[in-house]
């Protein structure tokens, strides 16, 4: 079976002529079921990488394959469909719609992908239950804590059963306890098979929760490390360096 995600020599130059490419020859494969953390300093290309995988942008050169499909060559309609139901995106600042209730925020993502109202409501309720926020269904985002809002955003991201969950600094706006709870939720979802790509600045969180950490420096993969987290104690992380990527 083909890999879920396969990037080959991907370059991304914004505005065509920037001196420093945001991505400068990234090759990376991600299997179904992985929990991959992407780390790196500010400006190293993490969000650019996630946006290309999400079909929000196209590479300047190189290929981004998802499920064997070349996103760089996909038509606009195909790409729009992929963005709506192929990926679930979670952001630092939740991006919930303030005028809709929690339940409606989750439902609307299903409806935009073509679900009828009844089916969307049922799927949204199912996710709120799974994520432990059923009692928040009728409330409005502004009344929730950051951690609760991020749970709603994760429910929304999962509503169309995406191939992968993409999270760009999902704990960046949360206190450390809420951040840990969000990470624990991502681990739980990953344990039930959900592929997760997480961008984070936080090396501790990455080492503690992710199965693999890819580090970007200046738009290149500087390091790619597989971690075997012990389920008994996340602190006892066995680091196994699988490959040294030539810099
Ligand atoms: N839309 C854009 N137009 C022009 N340049 C951009 C755009 N988005 C990103 N860049 C540039 O591309 C490079 C990589 O940016 P990117 O946002 O991917 O970094 P990042 O690793 O996510 O950083 P941060 O940790 O600060 O979020 C940076 O030099 C940035 O200024
Ligand atoms: Mg970023």
Describe, in plain words, how this protein is organized in 3D.
This protein has helices spanning 46-53, 76-85, 102-112, 117-130, 146-158, 176-191, 203-209, and strands spanning 5-12, 23-30, 35-39, 61-66, 69-70, 87-90, 164-168, 195-199, 212-217, 220-229, 237-243. The protein is α/β, with parallel strands linked by helices and 247 residues long. Strands 6-7-8-3-9-10-11 form a seven-stranded mixed beta sheet, sandwiched between helices. A four-stranded antiparallel beta sheet has the order 2-1-4-5, covered by helices on one side. Helix 3 packs across helix 4, helix 3 (102-112) packs parallel to helix 5 (146-158) and helix 5 runs parallel beside helix 6. It is globular, with a radius of gyration of 18 Å. The relative contact order is 0.18. The structure holds adenosine-5'-triphosphate and magnesium ion (MG). Magnesium ion (MG) binds at residues 46-47.
| Major sheet characteristics | 7 strands, mixed
Total beta strand runs = 11
Structural class: alpha/beta
Bound compounds, each kind once, are: adenosine-5'-triphosphate, magnesium ion
Keywords:
247 residues, alpha/beta, 7-stranded mixed sheet, 7 helices, binds adenosine-5'-triphosphate, binds magnesium ion
Summarize the structure.
The chain has 247 residues and is an alpha/beta fold.
């Amino acid at each position: 079976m083909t890999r879920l995600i396969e990037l080959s020599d991907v370059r991304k130059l914004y505005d065509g002529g920037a001196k420093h490419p945001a991505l400068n020859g990234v090759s990376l494969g991600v299997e179904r079921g992985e929990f991959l953390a992407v780390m790196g300093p500010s400006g190293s290309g993490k969000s650019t990488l996630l946006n290309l995988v999400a079909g929000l942008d196209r590479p300047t050169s190189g290929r981004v394959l998802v499920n064997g499909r070349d996103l760089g060559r996909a038509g606009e309609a195909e790409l729009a469909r992929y963005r709506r139901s192929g990926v679930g995106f979670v952001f630092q600042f939740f991006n919930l719609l303030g005028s809709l209730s929690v339940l409606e925020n989750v439902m609307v993502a299903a409806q935009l992908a073509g679900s009828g109202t009844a089916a969307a409501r049922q799927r949204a309720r199912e996710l709120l239950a799974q994520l432990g926020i059923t009692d928040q269904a009728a409330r409005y985002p502004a009344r929730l804590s950051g951690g609760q809002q991020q749970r709603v955003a994760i429910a929304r991201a999962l509503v169309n059963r995406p191939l992968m969950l993409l999270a760009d600094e999902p704990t960046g706006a949360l206190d450390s306890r809420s951040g840990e709870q969000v990470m624990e939720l991502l681990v739980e979802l990953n344990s039930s098979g959900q592929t997760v790509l997480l961008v984070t600045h936080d090396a501790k969180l990455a080492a503690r929760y992710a199965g693999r950490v890819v580090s970007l420096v200046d738009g290149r993969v500087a390091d790619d490390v597989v971690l075997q987290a012990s389920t008994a104690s996340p602190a006892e992380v066995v680091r196994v360096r699988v490959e040294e990527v030539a810099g």
